Amino acid sequence: MSIGTFTIRALDPLKDAELLHRWVTDPKAAFWMMQDAKLQDVEREYMRIAAHEHHHAYLGLHDGEPAFLMESYDPRYVELVGLYEPAPGDVGMHFLVAPTDRPIHGFTKAVITAVMDELFADPRTRRVVVEPDVGNKAVHALNEAVGFVPVREIDKPEKRALLSFCTRDQFLAARGVAV
Questions:
Q1: In a designed cystine with 166, which of 93, 120, 147, 174 is the match (CB 3.0 to 4.6 A)?
Q2: Per-residue pLDDT tens for 9-53?
Q3: Using an 8 Å Cβ cutoff, are 87 and 98 in contact?
Q4: Paired strand residues for 127
């Protein structure tokens, strides 16, 4: 059974802010840490990202409709500075699936797979780095399902995080593609 088609476009911080505000303040987005954000806070945060040379935000579409948020960043300059030794080709990633009243079985795994496909479409990407909250067991399972290997817990200013890596080969192996 096909879940549908995923596409990814650059996020427009002003046009997409209202949509994002609904997503990041939803109770299911607690680990996004923007539960109390006002619309202006969301606009400001994504304007900051849009202006940043090493941090990018994208809107993911499912069959043409907004369905998820994706961020990529260079961990040498954003999020993980001083918390691990970045390797050439490392790309940091965050993703958030839009809340829904009509969940589709396998949808979130399909989203993270689409995100990883997008990141590895760039031949310079050698390894994807994530740092989810240690308490976010659901995302740890998803990460593992697409090839991430936990390395260690780290202390970030806003949370205790599980630093995990996924190489291109690990991602392909998790998908059942011979490497």
A1: 147
A2: 999 999 999 999 999 999 888 778 788 889 899 999 999 999 999
A3: no
A4: 90, 167
pLDDT of residue 1: 56
123: phi then psi, degrees, rounded to nearest 5: -60, -15
Q: What is the C-alpha to C-alpha distance for residues 165 and 147, in angstroms, rounded to an integer?
A: 8
Residue in the structure block whose two tokens are 């958030």: 96
Q: Would you say 67 and 98 are in contact if contact means Cβ atoms under 8 Å apart?
A: yes
Instruction: Tell the burial category of 98 from Cβ atoms under 10 Å away from its Cβ (0-12, 13-18, 19+).
Output: buried
Instruction: Compute the distance between CA of residue 80 and CA of residue 67 in angstroms, rounded to an integer.
Output: 27
Question: What is the residue whose two structure tokens read 């954003």?
Answer: 78
Classify residue 111 by burial, with Cβ atoms within 10 Å: 0-12, 13-18, 19+: buried
Q: Is 42 helix (H, G, I), strand (E, B) or coil?
A: helix
Give the predicted TM-score (pTM) of the model.
Answer: 0.93
Q: How far is CA 18 from the centre of its chain?
A: 19
Query: What does the alpha-carbon distance between residue 132 and residue 161 come to, in Å, rounded to a whole number?
Result: 5
Alpha-carbon gap, residue 30 to 139, rounded angstroms: 12
Task: Tell me the H-state helices in 52-167.
Answer: 107-120, 137-145
pLDDT, tens digit (0-9, with 9 covering 90-100), for 157-175: 989 999 999 999 999 999 9
pLDDT digits over 57-103, tens only?
Answer: 999 999 999 999 999 999 999 999 999 999 999 999 999 999 888 88
